[in-house]
Amino acid sequence: MSQTPNAAVALLVVDDEASVRESLARWFAEDGFTVGTADSAAQALQRMQERRWDILLLDIKMPGMDGMELQQRVAEIDPGATIIFITAHATVDTAVRALKAGAFDYVTKPVDPDHLSHIVQNAVRQRQLQRRNEQLQEQVSEFARADAIVGDSPAMRRVYDLIQTVARTDTTVMIRGESGTGKELVARAIHGNSGRRYFPIVTVTCGALAEGVLESELFGHERGAFTGAQYRRKGKLELADGGTLFLDEVGNIDTKTQMDLLRVLETKQFTRVGGNNVIHADFRVISATNRDLEKAVQEGTFREDLYYRLNVFTIFLPPLRERKGDIPVLAEHFVKRFARQRGMQPMAISPEAMDALVRYDWPGNVRELENAIERAMVLGRPPALRPEDLPFQVTGPAARPGTGTLESVEREHIIRVLEDNHWNISRSAEILDIDRATLYHKIERYGLRKPV
């Protein structure tokens, strides 16, 4: 048999004859496959509950449920599984029925190992092409379509309408909403439905960069412009030429960079840091913020002229607690996505777990729900996710009004968010809707310590 690495491919041999079953398992294990066996259709169905099998070698004639009936059951559980029949009862009628029912191929006993290996390798190549095609379709879908944003509530249908309306224009857009509501997805949907979709969308996360770093990130720099600038570097404005510039957390830009950015938006011209050559760039601007910019303008921390330049067309994203009808759809979407990424069978969500998901207010919005489902998929076991698989704050006292001081409730909530995110400060701060400095302050104030 061939020596092509196949460790990523799981193959299940289903045959009631021990000698055939063990021989096939040994052949394909030596060929590098992850191999499992079953001596009956019932055991095969049990194996399919344990993990996902890419290819199934099925004997047609078995006691109880035969291979043809098992094929139908497999198709219901995992339509993407590849079926290859092996039988000593070779008839044209049986072969035709098997192939019409969706089998990949059909071989007879006694099995020629090289011939069967060739068929299986063809099946592997076909699956790889199918998966690659699905991945490309998914990437294009998420890049280009507004319906990559999940939700069917009236509030979200309004968002979809606004995306379709503004995408056809070159109007500057500001996306408003709490942290974790999906502002970047909306920006990508607008870009993907616009005339600029064949050029890049370039994202600048303004809140994550210090003043000097943000300036260099936006405008680029010449060699020697500052200590450590060993090479000329193009900025995000230059890279967005022809496409879309997405300014995330735009409310956190410092006042000096605000003035420089305003000049660029008015002229579409700029110079790199340390340079003199004027660079022209044509790009659309989409910005996003969870801050009260109107208050920032009143306080003088955000330029009024820049505010009006950015806030031409506004899309407000509702928090998840105001569209609870979307929670079941979102949760099932995330279950399917994580299952696909991990090569698992999607699990159901038990009624009790779904009730907990809907009752919780999700201060971290869709991002927090996504994290909760990912955690549950790690802990959960088929056939369904249970309440105990969910983070404690979703099912515990923090999910409903309780007793205790405000400080004690806040301390416990911060602990749970940190633990659920493995003490990733940036991610935890996003879910808590505070900046990292505030989170570090609260960690010190409450005497919290990362587990060793």
Short key terms for the protein model shown above:
452 residues; alpha/beta; Rossmann fold; Helicase, Ruva Protein, domain 3; 3 domains; five-stranded parallel β-sheet; 19 helices; 13% strand; elongated
Account of the 3D structure:
- The strands form five sheets. A five-stranded parallel β-sheet has the order 2-1-3-4-5, with helices on both faces. It has a five-stranded parallel β-sheet with strand order 7-10-13-6-14.
- 48% of the residues lie in helices and 13% in strands.
- The chain is elongated, with a radius of gyration of 28 Å.
- The chain folds into three domains: 10-139, Response regulator (Rossmann fold), CATH 3.40.50.2300; 148-318, P-loop containing nucleotide triphosphate hydrolases (Rossmann fold), CATH 3.40.50; 321-445, Helicase, Ruva Protein, domain 3, CATH 1.10.8.
- Strand 11 and strand 12 form a beta hairpin.
- The chain has 452 residues and is of the alpha/beta class.
- Residues 149-378 form the Sigma-54 factor interaction domain.
Main sheet characteristics: 5 strands, parallel
CATH superfamily of the largest domain: P-loop containing nucleotide triphosphate hydrolases
Strand order of the largest sheet: 2-1-3-4-5
Mean pLDDT score, rounded?
A: 86
Assess the beta-strand content as a share of residues: 5-15%
CATH topology of the largest domain: Rossmann fold
